[in-house]
Write a structure and sequence with these properties.
500 residues; alpha+beta; 5 helices; 21% helix; 32% strand
């Protein structure tokens, strides 16, 4: 988790709850049906290990599996051929033992030849059938890969932070820009189209843990490890769009980015960018790290969540504390507000998240959601009457606000889930994982896609957060991670839903 007060690059990563960081290992495949022993040390995995390949790992594994099936079929046919040969040799020995000649005009030779010819014909037919079926599988796998590339395409990389990026957000007013919050004590604003850094906020003395933008004004809200939340104004001017890069150009970088050293980042980062150092308002009521903050509908109040186990409600105009929301047994990890109603959810390490209702000023009702078995890392509202929660227990649950006793959908994954987001128009859930993957699901729990990850695409470390931008006709998803970069993806929603 982000740290309290000043933090270096090493201490910032060390203070987050322990996450396993995995290296990409070379592929190793074991023979399962082989009848012959290979010489010691000469196995297929050994031959493949260390070989460079520009194919995506999933495609490469698929091809190796298909060729393995072909090889096993050949082995079976080869065994049958050996048995036929032994049978022929046995018949020949019998004929010789009976004193019959095996050459000349003996009719037995013709029978043996006919049997051998029939066996050869069967072998040839099996080979043709195997080749045809395997070729169809290979072609179909190539078609599926082409389709998946069309579903999710890398739009732009945003590189410039000096430490991991915890959170990101999209402005709700024009011009539309991307904001990132980092453990390097800064928040940056980026041009989505060009990837250029437009502005830096450097008013915090600790890790910047979240960033949210005002619904109608050019103001940002950031939460920090220095136990404060800041409201600050920004003014940016978008640069002229640049021509798209030539994606067909050959790649000379054969190093798998997942094998790069910790903290190694391409590019020199933003330089000579305008910097804001003074906040419009500073909120100081917490006694611990402020892990998240968000605007209530209308933008007149904000809510903050802290490691001091409390969430605070403030008036924006006066910066006064209105309510302190207590009840969680352990540190808070996230907070989120409803887009159209005065509702707030807070997530905690106590395996629960709570719904706070401020629609009636005289009654502040609280509902506790219990269903996870580990830290609830985030809980977000959808446009409808649903809440989606993600947890370190490797599950994501969809809840109905009208029936909160049990989730209506449970999505099980193979890695801890960090700060999720749900697209407003299509209600697609984006799951950032500790294992560097980002998966897309619909509200019913059907898996739609996994964003590509190769030596040229995707994150090299844990993915911390996702955010959707559906302002334009194209639907974009933004992700950030502890590899110090944010990435924009173009998601083909119609094709995605058609594939489902």
């Amino acid at each position: 988790m982000p740290v309290e007060g000043g933090s270096s690059s090493g201490s910032a990563s060390a203070t987050r709850h322990p996450k396993q960081k995995r290296k990409a290992h070379s592929l190793s495949i074991r023979r399962t049906n082989s009848t012959e022993e290979r010489p010691p040390g000469i196995l297929r995995g050994d031959m493949l290990e260390g070989q460079d390949s520009k194919l995506p790992l999933a495609l490469r594994n698929n091809l190796l599996d298909l060729f393995g099936q072909i090889e096993r079929e050949f082995e079976n046919l080869y065994i049958e051929n050996l048995e036929l040969r032994r049978e022929i040799d046995s018949l020949n020995e019998r004929l010789t033992g009976d004193g019959q000649a095996v050459d000349g005009g003996d009719p037995t030779k013709g029978a043996l030849k006919a049997k051998a010819s029939h066996s050869t014909s069967q072998l040839s037919q099996k080979l043709k059938t195997t080749y045809k079926a395997s070729t169809s599988k290979i072609v179909s796998s190539f078609k599926a890969t082409t389709g998946s590339r069309a579903l999710c395409q890398l739009l732009k990389e945003y590189i410039g932070h000096r430490d991991g990026i915890w959170d990101l957000g999209i402005t709700r007013t024009q011009p539309v820009v991307l904001g990132t919050a980092s453990a390097d004590h800064s928040a940056l604003l980026w041009s989505i189209e060009t990837g250029k850094c437009l502005l830096r906020y450097a008013g915090h003395a600790g890790s910047v843990n979240s960033i949210k933008f005002h619904p109608t004004e050019q103001m940002a809200l950031t939460a920090s490890g220095d136990q404060t939340a800041h409201i600050w104004r920004y003014m940016v001017q978008l640069p002229a769009p640049q021509p798209p890069p030539d994606v067909s150009a050959p790649c000379d970088d054969d190093q798998d980015s997942s094998d790069r050293e910790e903290g190694e980042v391409d590019g020199d980062g933003p330089s000579e960018v305008p910097t804001v150092r003074v906040a419009t308002a500073t909120l100081k009521s917490h006694q611990g790290v402020v892990i998240a903050a968000d605007w209530l509908v209308g933008g007149r109040q904000i809510v903050t969540a802290s490691w001091d186990r409390a969430a605070n409600l403030y008036e924006v105009e006066t910066s006064e504390l209105v309510h302190t929301l207590t009840g969680h047994d352990q540190e808070l990890t996230h907070c989120c507000t409803h887009p159209t109603q005065r509702l707030v959810v807070t997530a905690s390490r106590d395996t629960t998240f709570r719904l706070w209702d401020f629609r009636d000023p005289s009654i502040h009702s609280v509902n506790v959601f219990q269903g996870h078995t580990d830290t609830v890392t985030s809980a977000v509202f959808t446009v409808g009457d649903n809440v989606v929660s993600g947890s370190d227990d490797r599950t994501v649950k969809v809840w109905d606000l009208k029936n909160m006793r049990s989730p209506i959908t449970t999505i099980r994954t193979d890695s801890a889930v960090n700060r999720i987001s749900v697209s407003a128009n299509q209600r697609i859930i984006a799951l950032p994982h500790d294992n560097r993957q980002v998966r897309l699901f619909d509200m019913s729990g059907v898996r739609l896609a996994r964003l590509p990850r190769s030596n040229r695409m995707g994150h090299r470390r844990m993915v911390c957060c996702t955010a959707w931008n559906e302002e334009n006709q194209a639907c974009n998803l933004f992700t950030c991670g502890f590899d110090r970069q944010a990435i924009g993806w173009n998601i083909n929603i119609p094709a995605l839903l058609q594939e489902k």
